[in-house]
Please model this.
Amino acid sequence: MTAKLVQLTVNGREEHIAADGLISLQQVLREKLDYNTVKDGCTQGGCGACSVLVDGELALACLLPVSRLEGAEITTLEGLNESNSAGVIQESFVEHSAAQCGFCTSGMIISAKALLDENPTPSRDDIMEAISGNLCRCTGYLPIIEAVQSAAGKLAKGGDGE
Ligand code: FES
Ligand code: FES
Model:
């Protein structure tokens, strides 16, 4: 059977992917395009380690067959490098020791970025809700919540915002 060719834009770059069967966005990003910040955790939608933005919305790459993504714009953590707000979030993660082994960190930062794009002044509950799909086995979550609060505060002051 001939694989369907799917056109995606990944981090601003146009890609044409042979979408064999149910190959997932996670497999394509990691194995074909070398975006290794998209982690291979549970592959079942349970850990958030593969979080990306699809057309600006938070999504789990392991649950998305590429064949359904014709024309979609995908952003991974690599693609957020030019974004000041992502830089501020990463800086706050370092300041609050919110990244320990680092396995969950890219997914956490993507979830935080999606939250702050939507809601620049989140409450603590909003942050907890936003990262509720992201598992972390190291930090106990508190440093991550504080890092996101701190990033929101810095961005609200405007100096480091986009
Ligand atoms: S690897 Fe996708 S949610 Fe766990
Ligand atoms: S820092 Fe290790 S899983 Fe979160």
User: Anything to note?
Assistant: The beta strands are 4-10, 13-19, 51-54, 57-60, 73-75. The chain has two domains: 4-79, 83-157. The longest helix spans residues 142-157.
